[in-house]
Amino acid sequence: MIAITQINLSNPWIARGCVLSAGLLMAFLAKETAEWWKKKKLRREWNSVGKDVVILHQFIRGKYCLNLSPYALKVETFLRLANIKYVVDSDSPYGPKGKCPWITLNGEDLGDSEIIIRRLVQDFKVELNNHLDNRRKAELEAVRIMADEYVFWCVITWRYWLDGCVTFLQTHSFPTLLNPIFPFFMTRAIRDKAVMHGFGVHTPDEIYEFSKTACKTLSKILGKSLFVFRG
């Protein structure tokens, strides 16, 4: 038998607690409903762009470059080189994997820049490296991994932690009220992630040397060309 306890609302503390709980529940439901309607509206807009048009979800544009996210730049550069039609959405930068960028293609959502590019190559039958032999393709893949998994940590560790977001805020457009708040949260978050990764346990001077060596290596690979292994 289930015992039902009657709430004594004559107690002022209990009454206030009930009112507060009801208020929080209503606020939560209102927030969830608003988000649901927003997602539904955005989904209708995304579905209206047409067949085989890529919707690239990413951060807002920087002041001096298309995007300050290396991976967003990577995907958008690929779309341009492959002549794939796309539109940019900055209202929903984080996708199904909680990462930026992500894309929507014909109603399907895809996350992670490398998975996105592989899928686009498959669906649009794009092969930008068909002029390379297998060894060159393997070398190019090694360069990509170096940039994605090593140079990336050099960049964000300096940008958000060691530099304290100073240069970042000079090159990005944020509402005025967010300027003092963003470094407080971002610096801590990137520091903790860098330490967990292992890169952040090094001293600033050591990180600088790692970064300089990586940049010199990429410079030697590029030589005087604008592209790696340009055909």
Automatic annotation (TrEMBL):
Ranges for domain Thioredoxin-like fold: 70-160
InterPro entries attached to this UniProt entry: Glutathione_S-Trfase, Mito_Protein_Transport_Metaxin, Thioredoxin-like_fold, Thioredoxin-like_sf
Pfam families from the UniProt entry: GST_N_4
GO CC terms in record: cytoplasm
Annotated protein name in UniProt: Thioredoxin-like fold domain-containing protein
Species of the source: Halocaridina rubra (Hawaiian red shrimp)
